[in-house]
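Researcher: Following up on the earlier apo prediction. This time include the ligand. It's guanosine-5'-triphosphate, with the SMILES given after the sequence.
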Amino acid sequence: MNAPAGPGSDTATPDAAPEQPHRSGFACFVGRPNAGKSTLLNAMVGQKVAITSDKPQTTRRAVRGIITRDDAQMVVVDTPGMHKPRTLLGERLGDLVRSVWSDVDVIGFCVPADEKVGPGDRRIAAEIAEQAGRTPVIGVITKTDKASADQIAAQLLLLSEVREFAEIVPVSAVRQEQVGLLADLMIARLPEGPRLYPDGEVTDEPVETMISEIIRESALDGVRDELPHSLAVLVDEMGPREGRPENSPMTDIYATIYVERDSQKAIVLGRKGSRLGEVGRRSRLQIEKLLGQRVYLSLHISVAKDWQRDPKQLRKLGFDPQ
Ligand SMILES: Nc1nc2c(ncn2[C@@H]2O[C@H](COP(=O)(O)OP(=O)(O)OP(=O)(O)O)[C@@H](O)[C@H]2O)c(=O)[nH]1
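Model: Understood. Below is the ligand-bound prediction.
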């Protein structure tokens, strides 16, 4: 299902006017935690594929969004927020980010319009220069709906001092402003080539991963700052419910939310389990949308002590670098 499609599925009319060549390739967004990378990716793909949250560092995996147009296909790899490694998990995320950089054709460097350009941005710029010196980088000023025109102009200037950019584009993912233009500019940097994935595919993440991310996002909503690092979700079992009529299928999903400590378990559970119930309900609605059918979701919480520091646990939770 996830195998890239072979080239040549499109037939060109022989006597058509000279056309733009078809382009295809890989892109990623970099930027400090909370810079708006996942939201921008979702806005570009037009469908929710990457986890977003108002808490920093929630993006754990290189989730790919695939933008397919008549003239191009761009596979966007969403990288985790940049941060100094604190744990084994942090180090692995760092490795993942860097291996992504050297692999893409174009990088979108995101800085929010309403926050100072700072040392964090310069550090990322320096790392890109070191790891992917020849990759074109497009400066993206995100969240322009949160800033005045003057602020955006000042930010353009400040960002242009951080490094040399191929272009700098202000966008608002929330208002869908300039998102198409940014896609055009990034696509222009891709090499000529055929489609890499079949039509209609927006991500090549396994569906279990997308479901885990949906549950993780719901479980994180509105909880304390320390939890993002301590919460992981695993789909234990998933399958069609037996004996359902053909026109009304249903999927049973059993998933476990892992936390590191009993105190965190209590937070996720809420009073008499009320919060977990709400997390389950919200997740189920989103998963039903994703799968296009009814879902029975059973959520279980388990305390896996210090899972972020334990290679065995990390592997179980899908953080093993291949
Ligand atoms: N007003 C406004 N808010 C935005 C926009 N884009 C993102 N946000 C908000 O900014 C916060 C962070 O957005 P994310 O997309 O999760 O940021 P990220 O860079 O992927 O964060 P990490 O996963 O931590 O690296 C969320 O609360 C978003 O709703 C935008 O265009 N306008």
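Model: Residues 1-14, 53-61, 80-86 have pLDDT under 50 and may be disordered.
Researcher: Noted. I'll compare it with the apo version next.
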